[in-house]
Amino acid sequence: MLIKSAEFVMSNSDVAKCPKSRLPEYAFIGRSNVGKSSLINMLTGRKSLAKTSGKPGKTQLINHFLINKNWHLVDLPGYGYAKVSKSAKKVFQKFITQYFLLREQLVNAFILVDIRHKPQPIDLEFMEWLGENGIPFSIIFTKADKLKPNAILRHVEDYKTELLKTWEDIPIYFITSSSKDIGKYDILNYIEQLNGN
Ligand code: GTP
Ligand code: MG
Hints:
The chain is α/β, with parallel strands linked by helices. It has helices at 36-44, 86-102, 121-132, 149-163, 184-195; strands spanning 6-12, 25-30, 62-67, 71-75, 106-114, 137-142, 173-175.
C-alpha cells in the first residue's frame, strides 16, 4: 500500500467522542517511549504527523489519523510509565481500556515492544487481556537499528519462547526501525490485506 494522504483528525480522551465513521481502524500501543509515534510517522512518511519525544509520556490522548481517506490509524498513550502520577495513570488506563472494549471498528491492535528488552510482564499481561477480550493483535518489535542482526534473531526467538508459555500460536510480528525505515511495507501491506483491498 502506498500512502497518498495522511491527515490528523482529532484527539480526545473519551471513546464516545472518537470519529463516528465506520472506517476500519488500527491502533498502535505499547510502553511509553517504545516508539509508537515515530513508527506512525515512518508508516505515513510524514516526519511530524504524530508528536514524538525523547521523554516518555508524550502522547496522552487517543489520536485519530485518516489515511488514504479510507482507514484510521490511532496513536495511543504509552502504558507503564512510572513518572506519570497515579491518578493520571488511572485515567489513561480507563480510557485505553474503554477504547479497546468499545471501539467496534478496531480491526487490529499493534503492540509495540522494544527489541532490546526481555519480554516485560506489562506487555505480556496486556496481550493476555486483549486475547481474553477477543481483540486481534500483532507484535511490532521497534528500534531494530540498535541491535546487530544476530542479536535481533536471538531476541525474537527468546520472545517467542516466552509467548509459547501462554499462547498456542505466535502472533504475527514485524521487525522495525523508524530511524532506518525498516518494516514499513510489511506493516502497510498487512493492513491492506486486512482492509481487503
Ligand atoms: P510516548 O508517546 O511517550 O508513549 O512515546 P512513543 O512510544 O510514542 O515514542 P516516540 O515515538 O515518541 O519515541 C521515543 C524515543 O525513541 C524518541 O527519542 C525517538 O527518537 C526514539 N525512537 C523511536 N523509534 C526509534 C527507532 O526505530 N530507532 C531508534 N534508534 N530510536 C527510536
Ligand atoms: Mg507517542
